[in-house]
Sequence to fold (634 residues):
Amino acid sequence: MSVETQKETLGFQTEVKQLLHLMIHSLYSNKEIFLRELISNASDAADKLRFEALAKPELLEGGAELKIRLSFDKDAKTVTLEDNGIGMSRDEVIAHLGTIAKSGTADFLKNLSGDQKKDSHLIGQFGVGFYSAFIVADKVEVFTRRAGLSAAEGVHWASQGEGEFEVATVEKAERGTRIVLHLKAGEEEFADGWRLRNIVKKYSDHIALPIELPKEHYGEEKDKPAEPEWETVNRASALWTRPRSEVKDEEYQEFYKHVAHDFENPLTWSHNKVEGKLEYTSLLYVPGRAPFDLYHREAPKGLKLYVQRVFIMDQADEFLPLYLRFIKGVVDSNDLSLNVSREILQKDPVIDSMKSALTKRVLDMLEKLAKDKPEEYKAFWKAFGQVLKEGPAEDFANKEKIASLLRFASTAGEGDEQSVSLADYLGRVKEGQDKIYYLTGESYAQIKNSPHLEVFRKKGIEVLLLTDRIDEWLMSYLTEFDGKQFVDVARGDLDLGKLDSEEDKKAQEEVAKAKEGLIERLKGALGEQVKEVRVSHRLTDSPAILAIGEQDLGLQMRQILEASGQKVPESKPIFEFNPSHPLIERLDAEADEDRFADLSHILFDQAALAAGDSLKDPAAYVQRLNKLLVELSA
Fold:
């Protein structure tokens, strides 16, 4: 071995210590994933070298044939994995193998479920795959040299997975990285060619560069060649370049796990080759669960971009709109330049055409999933429904298509489950109904018995119940579907159109006229608290409700703006009362104006509570209510 110089011992970052402890003592249920992770890292190193070599061909140093070699020594109890990819400099070794960027480890540790099998699969998703080597090894050595540096600038890193690691400068003739795992007692099964071959076929058959193992020779020792003969044990061809008919479902699923660093199978995928004006291949996946950082604005997102099979960049987010940021996969273009950059991607008209086509492909894929596998679509909606709801605001061209994929709870649905599509709703509309009715609120429990629904229950009209924080904002962009307008049942002056008979309308007008005196008295009592007082056509059982002005912000939007520290435009509710309710009849008969005012305020506050709002002056409400209770008990 080469002479080591500049040798130093350094301590691991605190989170790495925690992670190593976990690897060594807890994750035993699926040990073989260490090889999947190390091969995946080696594949990434080859991709990075190809990319950097576009601008600096000299980095290939005459060795343009990239590969991964896997060997073992039964006697020494070691497994060695070597690649001729980008390699690392001394500073990069210390940064990448001693610390973990961002808050990856903290998030990783926070997301542990206690289920060993699931937890072991989280490793890749959080970018901490290298440390999985310590599941089977009690000592790990890394020999590496970055492409472009001299042979004298090789680096040797070693650790026993405890509190520290050693790093030294060594001579290394070839670029790339060699990892030597010194297997723990009891893990000798991995120093075996047949075992390693099986793991490679199981997890890494899709890797696009050759994974080589020494050829097995059986029989006399003297028959073995002095130098090992290497044979490729994986397909070593980019999976997306193969015809769909030749790719098995299991291969698509394993490739997804590599691309997404996920352990579960995807819900569905779409593999497509486009020829003609544009030429590109896409392989797009819908994951089965949401990643931990789905709602982090700065989280990495986008597809892996290849140009003519050459890896260009991870997380190319210009090919799909933000509301489809959960889609994973690969796009390989023949039309883009090999030296394409993010800046060029943002301006290239070819990208706009591809983005439009890929967006449509994803929406078609979701539509097919919803139609053919409703149970799996339910799982998709639970994981990604709120993200898809960003679509109508962001993607006007596909607004109707996105709307057809949305799911809601409803007065005709199963509890609070969001399972009703707009097509389902329209299939059940009453004769003469030309609107889609909905109600927004803080929670299903709060709005399922809302007084705003009383007339709809009486007439058997279905109402969509929208309880996600984003819903009121969504409905400001989603104004109609299939030619029918959306109507918020808590907003403006409710008009049921043809669903009210002429007799109903005439009776309503007569009641409103007859109650003009009460309306004026209530206006005087409630004063500046209300924009308007009127007879309600929405109520059958409750005495009063608060309606929102046609152009005013609803409760959800007000709360979102307040939470983000923004100024909320001032608005006043409309007080509507049910003229046939005994409390309103009692109020109308009240001659004492002070008592009338107290009762009016109690009804106003109760209506606010029923709408899910908080009271401006809770103490005054309690005081009035107590006063009333004392009078009643006297």
